[in-house]
Amino acid sequence: xxxxxxxxxxxxxxxxxxxxxxxxxxxxxxxxxxxxxxxxxxxxxxxxxxxxxxxxxxxxxxxxxxxxxxxxxxxxxxxxxxxxxxxxxxxxxxxxxxxxxxxxxxxxxxxxxxxxxxxxxxxxxxxxxxxxxxxxxxxxxxxxxxxxxxxxxxxxxxxxxxxxxxxxxxxxxxxxxxxxxxxxxxxxxxxxxxxxxxxxxxxxxxxxxxxxxxxxxxxxxxxxxxxxxxxxxxxxxxxxxxxxxxxxxxxxxxxxxxxxxxxxxxxxxxxxxxxxxxxxxxxxxxxxxxxxxxxxxxxxxxxxxxxxxxxxxxxxxxxxxxxxxxxxxxxxxxxxxxxxxxxxxxxxxxxxxxxxxxxxxxxxxxxxxxxxxxxxxxxxxxxxxxxxxxxxxxxxxxxxxxxxxxxxxxxxxxxxxxxxxx
Length: 422
Fold this sequence. Notes:
Layout: H1 7-16, H2 34-59, E1 63-69, E2 75-84, E3 87-90, E4 97-98, H3 103-116, H4 126-129, H5 141-146, H6 158-166, H7 174-179, H8 197-214, H9 231-244, E5 250-251, H10 258-261, E6 268-270, E7 283-284, E8 299-301, H11 303-315, H12 321-327, E9 330-332, E10 338-339, E11 348-350, E12 355-359, E13 363-371, E14 376-382, E15 387-393, E16 395-397, H13 404-418
């Protein structure tokens, strides 16, 4: 089972999620006053509240939190609902949510910065960095990041499902997560396949690379991954978060401290897509261990902070040009062949932790809907206009019942258009 968005299901969801936003730039200067902004803010709030009123029981959600950001600095942020299903305090834009697979882009950036520093190449093999996995020795880091490695995702293995279902507080190590699927590879089907395992392996490589640098740059191929090295990923991720100025974004491998958990909205697992965590159904999950996901999906944040990250990623200097080109290099879904961009022929693409969708009527955007066992966090970034829409909610549901991206995002788009912002 994938607790994050999984392969074709995610692709289909993101295709339906395709929005078009024409050229907003020429209207940004016209709506800075409070009087001009209020009608739009009221209309967007109605969209959120209407969706919550209609879908709260179906999706077992108590809140929606949203940020809309235009290139140039204009931002709207708001939240509706309560911190707990059936009650609790009113949610504000400052409340935290788990962001799931949106964490993957952070992980890719950390790896690509190591490449920019000359420490490694994304075309290095696992045989070089993690020789303890000889069955996967010829698989490159690039394939781990763009999900063409054919390595299964550990969180759909029966053993991992059973372990977490019986003990959601388990503090799984990275080698333990990998062991759930090693030495398996898929031998049939398309090259592209959603796999959190690849990002756990990349986390191990990041740890090992920084450990070797701290030892004076003496990397030894025979060195195995040591538990003493596991803090480097968090150290470097914390530095990146601080560099971007994300004051409401946090990462811990297992459990968060009270100053963070006090701000965290309650999350609920109501996903009946098989395989099901039967003992956890309809449970409040926010206190459970995130050790099952770590670099594949362990960050908590706010919509505003995720929006800042997306803006910095695409429009700032988070990466050098060569590495940014690699970050955004696409393979098709599900074929897995390299493509220069999505199109009517290849409408769904995946890069190094990012999806790109092309709709024949509505244009191209980058986006992700990350999911953990109690939360969903979705964004869309439109490069032609610079518009970013980000919405978080507090449950994981069956795919057929998850309509935030297919319904709510369209309502928000229509409202922006009706108010002259598109």
